[in-house]
Design a protein that fits this description.
The protein is built from 20 helices and 18 strands. Strand 17 and strand 18 form a beta hairpin. Helix 10 packs antiparallel against helix 11, helix 13 packs across helix 18 and helix 16 crosses helix 18. The longest helix is centred in the middle third of the chain and has 25 residues. The radius of gyration is 27 Å and the shape is globular. The N terminus is likely disordered.
Length: 578
């Protein structure tokens, strides 16, 4: 009996370890990035990232009749392949944001109600695990390792192109929904993905496709670094994949434009989670019960021994599906038809997406504190993304984005002479060197070391510039540095000449605090003055944008730089309040 208790104890510990620290969700593209999974009764909740369909700016418009026909075909297809939905439909035009495509509540919907449920076999799924790749796509490569080792967005791009150009059928077996490769035998157990593929945008206006002049109109050097890094990574990855394809495969016809289309679809429509296991499969448990019955029926052992064996099967499942993926920090990236139509709201979104472990499906449900009214658009959150990430990955800009950031040059590159003149003090010799040794002349880098999803954001702040957020204003560490920098010898001696003693507000005295904040304000004002256009000029252009004959790229660039300048103005105003 002790063995049974010991085994149950181990099982309990494994479950607790699996659920530890899973109440908060992280995200994959931005100073955010991706998702951890948490068991929630029968589902694993995943925080959405990078998915949606915003036709207001990033997608080329289509004729209304064609769009309506595409929507009808998509919804008819959804019903025929087992997608269930209640009180929601795909819609275009008003009241969908920007007049594009989105999900609309056709009835009032209570909180915690499942609106959409999509079988797992209909999804396009890849992971960071080297042991988890699409075998049907691997066969199209002369050197499959290049495909297996490719970034997640590149693997999804290839999978989408195989389904779009070679064979639009996917297996509908419970073992998975991978795309079929060429030269495979017909499988009666398949689903044709063509209606969903036809609903995808065929043209994007993401900045990776912009000209140099269009990018420079953004008036923001950090995003130019991000776009350049993305462009190089995408081109290099395509060249590696192209060189590894089997010459006899139809995939050899894959062009860079095709690949880039797939990458745009992947980056803008996929969501991710740390959960890397499989859905619940009753067969091992049924087999275990059968073996236990035979084992006991034939008198081959005791009840205790049979219970130990059954408990080991349970423990093994937990290890495989939850503990090991978390231990090895595996990530899964999923494009889920229909759910991918949901648009983004940075704050107070309406719905969440979850993986239903026992149903082997993905669901879209209203949040616990949300009740949907009839004819209202249903929003999800792609995560706490700055406008840099939203523009680069999705092709749109969010007005008054609560998660937006501005990266100024590092403090060491500020115009010291202009700052001294503005505050009426001369910065004492040796202070800059002391701050350099303390690591305070550059801000915190964005993104995580080695995190592929945060590559571009990390490059944006490679120089460790000063980060200003809409929520928190200027980096507190920079205010500490400025208190030290502007302090007189008397103020410096009063804190024991220790940088750490000037961390808190007014730690250097009221006059020191006032001057430090004025210097920060002046630096931001100089940053605004360095722009080719003022905020007022941009806002006036925005009001008359229709009469200016601006391209879609010009409109996006204008909106983007307005938001960045507004953020700086707000930070300047916040410093004036203290």
């Amino acid at each position: 009996m002790d063995k049974i208790l010991w085994t149950c104890w181990i099982t309990t510990v494994l479950i607790l370890v699996t659920n530890q620290d899973n109440k908060s969700l992280t995200h994959a593209f931005s100073p955010s990035i991706f998702n951890q999974a948490r068991i929630q009764t029968s589902s694993l909740s995943l925080f959405m990232v990078k998915k949606g369909f915003d036709t207001s700016s990033s997608i080329q418009p289509v004729k209304d009749k064609d769009r309506e026909q595409s929507i009808r075909s998509l919804q008819d297809w959804a019903k025929s392949v087992g997608i269930t939905y209640k009180g929601v439909q795909v819609a275009s035009g008003e009241p969908i944001i920007g007049g594009g495509l989105g999900l609309l509540a056709v009835n009032s919907i209570e909180s915690n109600k499942v609106m959409l449920q999509v079988p797992n076999y209909l999804t396009f799924t890849v992971s960071t695990s080297k042991l988890d790749a699409n075998p049907r796509v691997e066969r199209l490569f002369q050197n499959p390792k290049v495909y297996v080792d490719a970034p997640w967005w590149a693997k999804l791009s290839v999978d989408l192109n195989v389904c779009d150009q070679i064979d639009s059928r996917k297996s509908s077996s419970a073992s998975g929904g991978s795309s079929r490769g060429e030269h495979e035998e017909d499988d009666i157990d398949t689903v044709d993905m063509r209606p969903w593929l036809n609903s995808l945008p065929r043209s994007f206006d993401t900045p990776i496709r912009w000209t140099k002049e269009q990018r420079e109109a953004l008036q923001y050097p950090p995003i130019l670094s991000m776009i350049a890094a993305q462009e190089k990574k995408t081109r290099d990855t395509f060249n590696s994949l192209k060189g590894a394809i089997d010459p006899s495969s139809s995939l050899m016809n894959l062009s860079y434009e095709d690949f880039l289309w797939g990458c745009d679809c992947a980056r803008s429509r996929a969501f991710s989670g740390a959960y890397g296991g499989t859905a619940f499969d009753p067969k091992p448990y049924a087999l275990t019960l059968l073996l236990v019955a035979v084992y006991l029926g034939l008198g081959l052992g005791t009840v205790e021994q049979a219970s130990n064996g059954a408990a080991l099967v349970f423990c093994g499942t937990i290890l495989k599906d939850f503990v090991l993926p978390k231990l090895f920090k595996s990530k899964k990236y999923v494009i889920c038809p229909l759910i991918d139509m949901a648009n983004h709201k940075g704050m107070k979104e309406d719905a969440n997406v979850a993986f239903e472990y026992f149903a082997d499906s993905y669901s879209l449900s209203t949040k616990s504190d949300v009740t949907m009214d009839k004819n209202c658009e249903i929003f999800i959150s792609y995560g706490p993304r700055s406008n840099d990430a939203l523009l680069q990955q999705y092709g749109f800009v969010e007005c008054d984005n609560a998660h937006d950031v501005y990266i100024m040059p590092p403090l060491r590159e500020w115009n010291i002479a202009a700052l001294e003149e503005s505050c009426g003090r001369t910065f004492q010799p040796g202070r800059l060197e002391k701050l350099e040794r303390a690591g305070l002349l550059g801000g915190e880098p964005l993104g995580k070391e080695g995190d592929e999803d945060s590559l571009e954001e990390g490059i944006a702040n490679r120089g460790r510039g000063v980060v200003i957020t809409r929520a928190g204003g200027i980096d507190p560490a920079i205010l500490t540095a400025l208190r030290v920098l502007v302090s007189t010898n008397e103020e410096w001696d009063a804190v024991g000449q220790a940088v750490g003693n000037m961390v808190t507000e007014f730690s250097g005295g009221k006059e020191n605090e006032r001057i430090a904040r004025n210097v920060a304000k002046k630096a931001m004002e100089l940053e605004l003055m360095s722009k080719p256009t003022t905020l007022e000029e941009d806002e006036q252009s925005w009001k008359i944008r229709d009469s200016l004959g601006l391209s879609a790229q010009d409109v996006l660039a204008l909106q983007f730089r307005i938001e960045k300048k507004k953020l700086l103005r707000e930070a300047i105003f916040a410093l004036s309040l203290v």
